[in-house]
Design goal:
The protein is an alpha/beta fold. The chain has 2 domains: 203 residues, UDP-N-acetylmuramoyl-L-alanine:D-glutamate ligase; 148 residues, Protein-Tyrosine Phosphatase, Chain A (Alpha-Beta Complex), CATH 3.90.190.20. The protein is 36% helix and 19% strand.
Length: 369
Amino acid sequence: MTRSLPLLVGVTGTNGKTSVTTMLASLLNKIGVPSAAIGQRVETPIDVRDRAEIPAGVKGLPQYISWLTQKYNLSVIAIEVYSAALAKGLHEHVSYNVVAFTNITEDHINVHGSFDAYVHAKLRIFSHMARDGSVVLDPSAEGMQPVLSRCDQLKLTYTTPKKHNTPFHLSYQQRNCHLAVALAKQLFQSNNNSVLTERVSYEHLLEKAMELHSPPGRYERWRMPNGVIAVVDFAHNSGGITTVIDDTRKALKNNEKVGFLLSSKGGWGEQKRASMACAAQRADIVIVTDDDPRQEDPAIIRFQLAYAHGFQEYSPRSHAIYQLCSAMKKDDVAIIAGRGADERWESVVGRYAYSDVRVLQQLGGVKIT
């Protein structure tokens, strides 16, 4: 069977999609396979593009894939596959050569109506697999039972990522790296693959994997003038918040404190906000602030996050970041969560430029490499 370029990898799940797709594309580029990652932004071998340029509608994504492939001469594109997009049929004309699952935890209930509906939307990715497509997942990851059951129904086998050394210190980052390496290995080992004709050894993949970095806005560390380590991260649901706080605490050696900046975008719903606030209690210090209020009153959003736990509230967000970092001591970790690398603020008055990273730079922070 002759394949046409590019090979498509669809990564779905509740947390970790951006890290896995970006790590995979970066790893493949390091070994000479031109690759891109499509997610909250579009990362190509040579630059970063705005996701907003993807045309709307069912034909938008395949058209963009074709254009991107021709412009950058791509062999592989790794794509974050969102549950809402699957539910709307926006992947109808996309056929994935490899599908991967990170985990499935409770999220986006306001979009799908129930957790069962959310899981069902995720499982729709199986209908967008190529006829000879393959599946990569860790069966021990949270929420995998419905996925494993669907694999059994479809008589699909799956590849499980192997544990190996990575350049990352936190366990969830290591798991994401394991999945990215397993996906790269699967692409090269596919029996019907006539695109990646040059074989690459697993040992070479592991060697290049040690050169990987976290994607921008995913556990991105900054040293502040007072010695506090500020971490820009995208944790935006109860599962992600729990993981980033717990894994951070496990990595600390001298009982340093963990601080957390808690926020919610407009439209997320009070139930999700309550679960986020409960998860944030794991931190030693929690400060509530704003994040893309969209059509909602930001004061109401902050109240819903803070009232049950007595968290402090500060607005605007830049002042809240200053307050959190100021409340902590040298080598404590202040997790600036929710926005990651996002550089646009959405409110009822429109969109304007805003970046957590720029705030840290203005406060004198220096990126830790």
